[in-house]
């Protein structure tokens, strides 16, 4: 993608620039939004900014972590990325209930909130109101903290790259593609505990493999 813009509090902007100086922190045009990664579920300035971004434009959106509660509030193509516990909160059931029948509840959420659902787990499920894609089992190390943020980033990049053709019907393919790249990068960057930096570096390699 051409660039990544970050919208958020000044204190966080400083940390972003220190770690990723290529990120643009000025406001400007974007082609898609990734909202919620690192945002707490409780009320906060970050949550307020997230809500403002979600309502600002009719652009494709990824809702992750602290933005999942916004599912169903946007008319633009939207994909949500919960794990079982987060989906349980959205549907007011237990996490064990979700884990016992993930396909059923991914589809239920897709219909209830009019979104595409990427339900993270050992076997990731991507579903909309008419289709289901079940990904092969991935390494258990993907339960490591931070890997979900990496997945959301891959998905946000795919939405931005394909913004001109993104629709509620083809978001399911983009979700499955992001999940596959994510799983391959994790598996090939480490045979044991995941190093996020190495995993991120491997993403470009996996995209190159898919492109040929």
Description:
- The chain has a single domain, classed as Ribokinase (UDP-N-acetylmuramoyl-L-alanine:D-glutamate ligase).
- Helix content is 46%, strand content 9%.
- The chain has 8 helices and 6 strands.
- The chain has a 6-stranded mixed β-sheet, sandwiched between helices.
- Helix 6 packs across helix 7 and helix 7 crosses helix 8.
- The radius of gyration is 16 Å and the shape is globular.
Q: Key terms for this structure?
A:
6 strands, alpha/beta, 6-stranded mixed beta sheet, UDP-N-acetylmuramoyl-L-alanine:D-glutamate ligase, about 45% helix, about 210 residues
Concise summary:
With 212 residues, the chain is α/β, with parallel strands linked by helices. It is 46% helix and 9% strand.
């Amino acid at each position: 993608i051409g660039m990544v813009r970050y919208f958020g509090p000044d204190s966080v902007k400083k940390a972003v620039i220190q770690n990723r100086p290529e990120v643009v922190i000025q406001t400007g045009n974007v082609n898609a939004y990734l909202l919620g990664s690192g945002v707490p579920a409780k009320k906060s300035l970050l949550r307020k900014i997230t809500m403002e971004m979600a309502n600002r434009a009719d652009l494709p959106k990824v809702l992750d972590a602290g933005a999942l509660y916004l599912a169903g509030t946007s008319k633009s193509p939207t994909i949500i990325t919960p794990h079982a516990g987060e989906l349980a909160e959205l549907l007011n059931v237990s996490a064990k209930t979700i884990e016992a029948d993930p396909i059923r509840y991914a589809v239920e959420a897709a219909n209830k909130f009019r979104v595409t659902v990427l339900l993270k787990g050992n076997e990731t499920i991507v579903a909309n109101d008419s289709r289901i894609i079940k990904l092969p089992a991935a390494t258990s190390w993907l339960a490591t903290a931070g890997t979900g943020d990496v997945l959301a980033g891959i998905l946000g990049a795919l939405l931005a790259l394909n913004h001109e053709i993104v629709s509620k019907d083809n978001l399911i393919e983009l979700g499955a593609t992001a999940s596959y790249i994510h799983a391959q990068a994790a598996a090939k960057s480490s045979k044991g505990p995941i190093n996020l930096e190495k995993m991120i570096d491997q993403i470009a390699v996996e995209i190159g493999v898919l492109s040929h």
